[in-house]
Amino acid sequence: MSKNKISFGQFAALLLISDAFAIICMRGRIGTPMALGILTAAAIQSVAAIPAVALCRKNFKISSSGTLWLKSILLAFSVMWGGALLINVWNTAKAIYIPSVFDNRIGDKLLISLLIAAVCLYVTSCGLKAIARAAVIAAGFGVICLIVVVVGAIGRIEPHYLEFTGSDSGYLDGIIGGFALGGSFGAYLMLLEKSADSVIKTTVFYFAGRIFFVALISFITISVVGAIMSITQFPFITAAELSQPLSSQRLDSIFAVVFVIFAILSISLQGIAISYLLKAIFPKFDKFRSLTSVAAMLCAAVILNVLAVGTKFYGMATALTAIAPAILLVARRRKNVCVK
To answer: What are residue 233's phi and psi, to 5 degrees?
Structure first.
């Protein structure tokens, strides 16, 4: 395997961790129609990946291509999504108990955000290979936690909750929300050319894993939390807290560890994507790219938070990014036809 390539397992682990973190931070009520919409969005994105796979099989590389507009779109999207993830850290930190050694002299949310940003700067500077290896270990730990949640949920599942919407949002809102949860698609386009295995196998493995994970989490969340969905701010976290195998066992510490690790890897992945795209657009930009990447995400987080952008904005941004490879593929084919 080339030193600049990653395996399909590392590829999937990086992206699934990013998807899982977005779902952990999901806010509001969710019902069956919305869950079906989220699954539909995941399926649509898997179809939208076909042009990217076709381009990659033709040895197309973002770094060496002359398509400045595609690089710019991906750069803007990665900065935006990195900022959105930082906002998620800030908003979700209050729902997960993390003991503080500062006796509340420093706000827990501020402390968590600052520490995560600092660690992300270090991880981003380590490069893709380092984060890819760490992602496999983190994904294994995440699978163990998911198994614990599933086992604990078995005795608490109420199938009749699936008959009710449990939400003011419907199927179409679920599709928009599903795209908003799929912000890792921009990083997918960057990672695709870094895959050491077949891009088809890599893509199928990732999207199959994503659809299965979203379906499982949606089922558990709705069937366990349905009775109190109207008063739940973070449905997945509530479902996990209710799904405890032993009455005396608290999973707060596990949630804290998973939350922090997944946050660091998700944000760092966007930082690496930003650094990579900055290098592609500005070839002479070698120094301080990691610092610039993290600073750009922090600025984006502040701006997005002040503007109070919602799910529709993130969903539309992801959808537009998803169709970019299709536009490029069509343009390249038309150009080839004209040359012939």
So the answer is: -90, -40
Q: What is the pLDDT of residues 257-274, one digit of tens each?
A: 888 899 999 999 999 999
Q: Residue 106 pLDDT > 80, yes or no?
A: no
Q: What proportion of the chain, given as a percentage, has pLDDT over 70?
A: 85
Q: Look up residue 6 and give its DSSP letter.
A: B
Domains of the chain: 8-339 (1.10.4160.10)
Helix (H) or strand (E) holding 12: helix 8-24
Question: Which positions ≥6 away from 221 have C-beta within 8 Å?
Answer: 30, 35, 235, 236, 238, 239
Neighbours of 233 (CB within 10 A): 14
Average pLDDT, the chain: 82
Phi first, then psi, for residue 195 (nearest 5°) are: -75, 135
Amino acid at 261: I
The one-letter amino acid code at 299 reads C
User: Would you state the torsion angle of the CA atoms of residues 161, 163, 168, 171, taken in this order, to the nearest 10 degrees?
Assistant: 120
**Stated pTM of the model:** 0.88
